Amino acid sequence: MTTTSLAAEASTGEAVQFWILGTVAVLGALSTILLKRAVHSALSLAGTMIILAVFYLANGAYFLGVVQIVVYTGAIMMLFLFVVMLVGVTAADSLKETLKGQRWLAAACGLGFGILLIAGIGNASLKHFNGLGEANAGGNVQGLAALIFTKYVFAFEVTGALLITAAVGAMVLTHRERTERARTQREQSEARIRDGKQVTPLPAPGVYARHNAVDVPGLLPDGTPSELTVNPTLRGRGQIRDVSGESLAELKALEQRSEERLGRSEEAKR
Amino acid sequence: MNPVNYLYLAALLFTIGAAGVLIRRNAIVVFMCIELMLNACNLAFVAFSRMHGNLDGQIIAFFTMVVAAAEVVVGLAIIVSIFRTRHTASVDDASLMKL
Amino acid sequence: MENLIALLVAAPLAGAALLLCGGRRLDRAGHWIGTLFALASFALAVPLFTELLGRDAEQRTLHQHLFSWIPVGGFQADVAFQLDQLSMTFVLLITGVGSLIHIYSVGYMEHDERRRRFFGYLNLFLAAMLLLVLADNYLLLYVGWEGVGLASYLLIGFWQHKPSAATAAKKAFLVNRVGDMGLSIAIMLMFTTFGTFAFGPVLGAVGETSEGKLTAIGLMLLLAACGKSAQVPLQSWLGDAMEGPTPVSALIHAATMVTAGVYLITRSGAIFNGAPDAQTAVVVVGAVTLLFGAIVGCAKDDIKKALAGSTMSQIGYMILAAGLGPIGYAFAIMHLVTHGFFKAGLFLGAGSVMHGMNDEVDMRRYGGLRKYMPVTFITFGLGYLAIIGFPGLSGFFSKDKIIEAAFAKGGTEGWILGGAALLGAAITAFYMTRVMLMTFFGEERWRKAPTPSPAEPSVEPAAETRGEYTPPHPHESPKSMTIPMILLAVGSVAAGGLFSINEAFVKWLEPVTDFEHGHPPLSASAITTATIVVMVLGVALAYFQYGRKPVPAVAPRGSLLTRAARRDLLQDDFNHAVLVRGGGELTRALVQLDHSVVDGAVRGTAASMGGLSGRLRQVQNGFARSYAVQMLGGAAVLIAATLLMRGV
Lengths: 270, 99, 648
Prior knowledge:
Number of helices of chain A: 9
Distance between the termini of chain C: 92 Å
Mean pLDDT of chain A: 81
GO biological process, one term (chain B): ATP synthesis coupled electron transport
Protein name (chain B): NADH-quinone oxidoreductase subunit K
Order of helices and strands of chain C: HHEEHHHHHHHHHHHHHHHHHHHHHH
GO molecular function, one term (chain B): quinone binding
Oligomer: heterotrimer
Keywords (chain B): Cell membrane, Membrane, NAD, Quinone, Translocase, Transmembrane, Transmembrane helix, Transport
Subcellular location (chain B): Cell membrane; Membrane
Low-confidence stretches of chain A: 1-5
Shape of chain A: elongated
Number of strands of chain A: 2
Strand content of chain C: under 5%
Order of helices and strands of chain A: HHHHHHHEEHH
Structural class of chain C: mainly alpha
Largest sheet of chain A: 2 strands, antiparallel
Radius of gyration of chain A: 30 Å
Radius of gyration of chain C: 30 Å
Helix content of chain C: over 70%
Helix content of chain A: 55-70%
Largest interface: A-B, 90 and 69 residues
Strand order of the largest sheet of chain A: 1-2
Distance between the termini of chain A: 83 Å
Number of strands of chain C: 2
Strand order of the largest sheet of chain C: 1-2
Structural class of chain A: mainly alpha
């Protein structure tokens, strides 16, 4: 990154970079809002943000570009992923609209808003770009630091306070005080008998110790899998691996192999 | 290429983010869309910074990031606690504020 | 000498405070304490009077400035007194007659357990009345004016356990309120016009003031006088005020308080002189009232109410005279003083009769009492002769002068006023003779058990009608009652003559009220003759109706006029129909208006807001995404507006 790239006019290289990465950024944004699974949305968004980081760098905001990668993609988006794993994990979201007229209104408002915004930008006389050559002369980080600790020092302090408050707030919000006594084992078994649904403990996953993975349901005596044996979260996601067929097939293959061997050995005897 | 294209890109991303807020029901995805909108703004600020030839725009973008980080922390905490009590993360289900 | 003026007011005020705050310890001596303070006030008045007499006619005005009351910028109200010939006359009348009536009350109220309180109220009245006539400005006069109203209210309702008394007190208070409103408005007008209330500056500045303002002030003062002096149209309270103890009727509702209106008009003479329209209103009120009261007096069987009608009528004479201007002021005051004597005497006589007749007030159950109550008969008779204007007695001099002055008004007006005054004199002679005959002459109707008549609902059946009837034992009243009556009778006989010697009274008052000789179209002797003739006619008519024929114990149905007069010429019905009913309708209409228009507007606004909110509530569906759409739409509109404004 030389100072030439910070001139008013972008270089051809920057233009190429813009058109390619810009397209990717828009696609990432679109997939963020259109993909059904929250995990996929989060990953698409992370991609878009990385591209934005590159654009920051291209615009001479070196510090911000790095911070964008470290803080946004590295910290915030990963936090999103954690939470998605924690809560948004059941089934994929349905994109079917439930509010009457919401989709049309959203489309109209979104389109109108976007068109007006773009028209506004086009309407404004933004032909002249000064470039950051002068401002970044002493180094971008130094320049920012000088501003932050002089002109914006109060705002800086206040955002510091805001961050602390947010951290405390998050802890307060997610901390759960146990308001009632934990149920004893005896009470739990009594409740089970009273409900009458499942008196015994839930069956364990895995069959005959052939598979002990958590996502493999145990088999009932007739060979069909029992969903009860699998964690409800996995059930909700539809991530049960049914191995009952496989086992039978494996048994069959085993028999065949042994027969082959026996036959071969019989043939060998003959 | 004129750097004003960055602004068009920012407007486009912002609009996409807004549309996402409107059509998605999963609170976490809605939150992501908001982040997208904030990032679009940041891009615009950075472009403005280049346009005016000073670093104030970058400072604003920096502060926006800080605020966004704080907001995400609190927002996600709220989502988690709502999920704990209501077993859903859909924004439509949290409609108790109506008359 | 000036410093004694405040003591005149202070003495009875101290008495009132002592008696009303002193508690039961003073019960045994309360009446004497009250009398003592009244006499003290009179004793203070006498040296002041001699002091005034000793001065030149132009020097006879004393001032005493007590303290500055409300000094606020241009609003300067002082507590200051002015004693001149007019005030002095009133002071002597008030303290003199007041003291006599205090003495009388000692006997009259002997058996009343709240006697101490009664004397406290009487002292309070004296203080307020003296303040009224001694004040040197209208604001202080107003204090006294309200004070006598309060004392009147308290004393009319003194027997408050009787619902009729309590109601009468309230009625008097309310009707007086209308008049008081007039006085307060007049004072406000004075302040805006003259910038002060003191008599001297106000009356001195009349010359530079427009007639319209003077007329407005004059009419308001007339309204005040009507209220306090029971003149048409605010006359309705006086008849009912007779529910109070008889000494009260004598002092307040005959001799002093009701004449405050005459004092006010006379005192404000300069204002009325500058406002002929207001003067015309005054004489009209006076003439109408003097006939009104006289007619009412003819029909009443209740002795006190008959005398109340007479009072109203006599004050009508005074108001008439006061409205005539400088030719009448002095005669108004002269009649006021003589009337103070003879009417107080008549009331005290009536009280004495009632005292001996178990508090019976219906004259149809009297009769032939002259043998049983000789002193009362003689004093009452002298008062009677005085009021009808028997030649040589005091009423003759004062009333005759008023009739002359009325004729002297000149033109058609003079003939009408004079004719009314003459007619009034005839009716006065008639009704007073009727009272006299029914009470002291004729058959002794009280020996028979009374038959309550359904035709006369206004007379309440006596308490003893249910059991066996025990006739009363008429007897002469104790000395404490008869002596004041005798003294007042002396005054009734002599006052007029004394005043008229060499026009002494007129000359005495002239520096204050001005005086000019009226020139009636007839000669003075002709008018005097006419007066005597109509008086004799009235007496004769009454004699033929009540002296020759036996008086029925139950009132006959009577003619339409009689029945109307018994109902006070329908004044209460008029008030009820016009003011009470009209006021009720007005308030009902206003309530309706309030309900339909004001509340309607409010409720309509609320309902439309509710409806609108109901619609708007649909927007508030609780879905965050709907709100987000609205926000985005709003943002789009903002951008559009910004672009448009930029474009423009």
